[in-house]
Design a protein that fits this description.
This protein has 170 residues and is mainly α. It has helices at residues 4-33, 37-63, 83-110, 114-144, 148-158.
Amino acid sequence: MLTKKMESALNTQINEEFWAAYLYLSMSAYFTSEGFPGFAGWMHVQAQEEVTHAMKIYNYVLERGGKVALEPLKAVATSWKSPLDVFQASLEHEQKVTAMIDKLVEIAIEEKDHATRSMLQWFIDEQVEEESSAKTIIDSLKLIGDNGYGLYSIDKDLASRTFVDETKES
């Protein structure tokens, strides 16, 4: 059974994960409107991942006898200066999520909730991957600058990303 403090913190995270999906959908729409279908597809997959992250915690809360409390989503940005700007915003968001997951682990330790701490290990590992992916794309975008062919090439590469529900693998 979850303590009220742990349940509340997990509910906050559920809502943040759904908000992240909303943010990534907005980024996908931005890229579509700017003529970058590969970037748009990459962000759309990112949005799908965030929904599965929210649902992993959602299901966990219910399995542990807790109550899920969904909140209204805050507005998200809808335009950026450039693809680099989008991915820098994405990295900043992922770094914020990493800090939130770390805080959840701290609460699990305080509450002596070993089951939640175990479940959160998946998210710790996932955040390393999320930050690394964003950083890799940022590095490439910085390298090419405004080079149209370079942007086209990255857009084409990112188009190959497909959605895989990694939460089902653990």
